[in-house]
Design brief:
Blueprint: H1 6-11, E1 17-29, H2 40-49, H3 52-60, E2 66-67, E3 77-78, E4 81-82, H4 83-86, H5 96-110, E5 118-123, H6 126-143, E6 147-152, H7 154-163, E7 168-173, H8 181-184, H9 201-212, H10 216-233, E8 236-246, E9 252-253, E10 270-271
Parallel strand pairs: 5-6, 5-7
Antiparallel strand pairs: 1-7, 1-8, 2-8, 3-4, 9-10
Helix pairs in contact: 2-5, 9-10
């Protein structure tokens, strides 16, 4: 349900339903040669300046949405437990002081007093527009960065990501199956979906280990290594886990909403009496 329809639903006193669809929204970076965002200190400065809780509470402002704790959303499981409970990820320090310390390091490494303008690519949907404006203001206020917004229709955004015509991009990903590897494989150097061209031998090694390990504990440990590496090397900054809001006809029963295996699942759906 679009956010602007929420008021109409509440005004009509319709029953509002929600479920987490497993999608993670993130801020991604371009690692192609010549892009400033290839600088690790700059990416870490941006990471330290952004607070996912603030993104959820002040920008997205939709029921069911939660701050992203990791690249792996909370719907994914590791055996009987959620992956994020079995393998909790220690958070990075997010503060103005830490962000400014890192941006000064980035300026020194990039060889200038100021960082050149950065172009933030996004789609034109209302959430992307609000997120882009928030990030533009936040990074200007905290880091003194000049962020210029580039809003495109979905197809054109993907084309620009494929060609590398951006510095940062607002994007998302959802799970194909209930396994952290559905996210972990995203940033392997050989993956065509790795449009930012992040490349790390250690990351690739961990992906291969997770793909081939016969021991469950070793496999999960490799995937934990992936989420730690994403936190430290910052190919992306996870922002929030999405939730879908919807209304359902009161006679419609047995519908299952799920992040895996096709949605909605209508196998046992039926119409009740009027």
């Amino acid at each position: 349900m679009p956010g602007d329809a929420l008021g109409q639903v509440l005004a009509q006193r319709l029953r509002l339903r929600q479920f987490r669809d497993g999608y993670v929204w993130f801020l991604g970076f371009n690692f192609r040669a010549g892009r400033l965002t290839g600088n690790r200190a700059l990416r870490q400065a941006i990471q330290a300046a952004i607070e996912p809780r603030e993104v959820v509470d002040q920008v997205v402002r939709l029921p069911g949405v939660r701050p992203a704790e990791s690249l792996f959303p909370s719907v994914l499981r590791a055996g009987e437990r959620r992956f994020i409970d079995a393998w909790p990820l220690a958070p990075v320090e997010r503060s103005r002081a830490r962000a400014q310390e890192l941006i000064e390091q980035a300026r020194r490494e990039l060889g200038g007093d100021e960082v050149a303008p950065l172009y933030l690519l996004s789609s034109e949907d209302p959430v992307s527009v609000k997120l882009g404006e928030y990030l533009q203001a936040r990074l200007a206020q905290t880091l003194g960065l000049d962020v210029r917004l580039d809003r495109q229709i979905f197809k054109q955004r993907i084309q620009k990501m494929n060609s590398g015509d951006y510095d940062m991009v607002l994007a998302n990903w959802g799970p194909d199956f209930d396994d952290p590897l559905t996210f972990g494989e995203l940033f392997a150097s050989w993956n065509p979906v790795n449009r930012g061209r992040f490349s790390s031998r250690e990351y690739d090694r961990l992906v291969r280990a997770a793909q081939t390990a016969s021991d469950s504990a070793a496999r999960l440990a490799a995937m934990n290594g992936l989420q730690i590496l994403v936190r430290d090397e910052v190919p992306v900054i996870p922002l929030y886990e999405n939730a879908r809001l919807y209304v359902q006809h009161p006679r419609l029963r047995g519908v299952v909403r799920a992040p895996f295996g096709g949605d909605p699942i209508l196998r046992h759906a039926w119409l009740g009496p009027p």
